[in-house]
Amino acid sequence: MSSTATPPDAGVSGAALHWRALESLYASAPVNRLFESELTVTGEGSARIVFNVTESCYHAAGAAHGTIYFKMLDDAAFYAANTLVTDRFLLTTAFNLHFTKPVRTGQVIAEGRWVSGRKRVLVAESRLVDAEGEEIGRGTGTFMRSRIALAGLPGYAAALGG
């Protein structure tokens, strides 16, 4: 698995095209070169990130550091919310997270879901599920529209043929 996006389909238009462009944007972010992960926008207000926890993510006591929890929870919620905004990049303004179980190794899925708001501020939640299907973390974030045009971001524009 790598930080890749679903290739654009010639017959895709509207929302699905926006979703593929968001996947491309995720894959293009330099920070995602540090984390073996893949984003899939699964529908309006919904996103999923699959990643692997390896020793490179560990804190000194031999389990995944909280930074990996935060990053994947924030990203899943962010992209779920950004499915509803087609012109602007969102910014995280606040994020609360709860650690419910340590994870040491294996595949983890971050599931993001839009909760409310569509104008200036959006709220989304996310959860982390380990390979056994148990929840290991949960978060809620608020996101606001920025002045950054999505179409001006190379990772987004590339998926649109720009």
Report on the architecture of this protein.
The chain has 162 residues and is α+β, with helices and mostly antiparallel strands. It has one domain: Hotdog Thioesterase (Thiol Ester Dehydrase, Chain A, Roll). Helix content is 23%, strand content 38%. The protein has a six-stranded antiparallel beta sheet with strand order 1-2-4-5-6-3. The longest helix is centred in the middle third of the chain and has 17 residues. The N terminus is likely disordered.
Biggest sheet character: 6 strands, antiparallel
**CATH-defined topology:** Thiol Ester Dehydrase, Chain A
- Tell me how many strands there are: 6
Query: SS-based structural class?
Result: alpha+beta
Distance between the termini: 26 Å
Number of helices: 3
Radius of gyration: 15 Å
CATH C-level class is: Alpha Beta
Give the fraction of residues assigned to helices: 10-25%
- Envelope shape: globular
Strand residues, percent: 35-45%
The low-confidence runs, each spanning 5 or more residues with pLDDT under 50, are 1-10
User: Which homologous superfamily in CATH is the superfamily?
Assistant: Hotdog Thioesterase
Tally of separate domains:
1
